[in-house]
Amino acid sequence: MLNQQQDRARTPIVAALGVVAMLALTSTIRAGTIDFNPTGSGASPTMTIAGIDLAPGNALAHLANPLTVGKTFQLDFQATVSGFVDPQGLTSAPPGLATSYQISALGSFTEVVTSVSADQTIATFAVAPTQAANSFFELYYNPTLSANNLTGAGFNLGTLILSGKPSTTAPSIGVFSLSTAGGNPVTQPFDQFGGTNHYPGINTVSGSGSSMISADVSFLNPAFFKTPLSEITFNSSLVTPFAQVTPTGQFTDFAGPGAPNVTPNLGTINGLNGPDFQFQADANFSFITAVPEPASLIQAGLGMIGVLCVAARVRR
């Protein structure tokens, strides 16, 4: 009976997830492969990749509760890279990744609630048209393994290899649906990873969803990125409770190095009676390579026409 109720609760999410899939398809039409050196040195060969795969990490909807349409909140995220997607769609890790060196991702995006169902079990959100001053996205290379999922420290240490700002013009959408039983949210222990519950006093609502966010690239380290990029698209699952990674104790909501500065305020039931809502997030990135502006294409076309005209005169 519980499973039937959970299935009914999740049924409305199918349409929203369909929108996510369509937007993802639209955004990847211009996606391309890039040449990337994972260590930025001769210690590793340059790879041709179509995407970056992240290990399960953490996301925090900071000051999102209670949900109301039009409300804005900051979505903080952090995780480490687990592998790279090749042009055939296969994911693999080069020697040393996550064992002798790390690549980490973190960011903070201003989101806006776009809809909430009448029973408060399904919500959708998107990148807000106006971003907070501290909104950012960054990738770091570190020759040591400093990132700590439990404490939240060490994700922004090492060499900055990419930075950008959330795109307010690219398609974006997020959706999250609660599991219910008898009309009430299903709750479970918050931390179910690794056999040790680091948060014995906190439970969580159970649910699942996904998000798609893009970032406009403002800086690339040429030792790592051998191909120019204009945009990256971030696709992630969002689930509770945590089963594949430890919930983190702190997040960083500013660009650049520094200690984490946001401690989640979850209440006794994550997602229900605290102002923050923390998710397990499993993400990947695809790339949009730099393309000529329309004006440049027109100029190139006119230039070609001019060349053809000169050639025609020479032939005459």
Description:
With 316 residues, this protein is mostly beta strands. It has one domain (2-315). Helices cover 15% and strands 40% of the residues. The protein has helices at residues 2-10, 13-28, 294-315, and strands at residues 34-36, 47-49, 51-54, 57-62, 72-85, 91-92, 102-116, 122-127, 136-142, 159-166, 173-178, 180-181, 184-185, 187-189, 203-205, 207-220, 229-240, 269-270, 277-289. Strands 3, 4, 5, 6, 7, 8, 9, 10, 11, 16, 17 and 19 form a 12-stranded antiparallel beta sheet that branches. A 3-stranded mixed beta sheet has the order 14-15-18, with no helix packed on it. The longest helix is centred in the C-terminal third of the chain and has 22 residues, at 294-315.
Layout of secondary structure:
Elements: H1 2-10, H2 13-28, E1 34-36, E2 47-49, E3 51-54, E4 57-62, E5 72-85, E6 91-92, E7 102-116, E8 122-127, E9 136-142, E10 159-166, E11 173-178, E12 180-181, E13 184-185, E14 187-189, E15 203-205, E16 207-220, E17 229-240, E18 269-270, E19 277-289, H3 294-315
Parallel strand pairs: 15-18
Antiparallel strand pairs: 1-2, 3-5, 3-19, 4-5, 4-19, 5-6, 5-7, 7-8, 7-9, 8-11, 9-10, 10-16, 11-16, 12-13, 14-15, 16-17, 17-19
Report the mean per-residue pLDDT as an integer.
86
Order of helices and strands: HHEEEEEEEEEEEEEEEEEEEH
What share of residues are in beta strands?
35-45%
Taking all Cα atoms into account, the compactness measure Rg is: 22 Å
What is the total domain count?
Answer: 1
Question: Can you summarize the main beta sheet?
Answer: 12 strands, antiparallel
- The low-pLDDT segments are 1-29, 292-316
Q: What proportion of the residues is helical, as a percent range?
A: 10-25%
Globally, the shape reads globular
Structural class: mainly beta
In whole angstroms, the N-to-C terminal distance is 85 Å
Q: What is the number of helical segments per DSSP (H or I, 4+ residues)?
A: 3
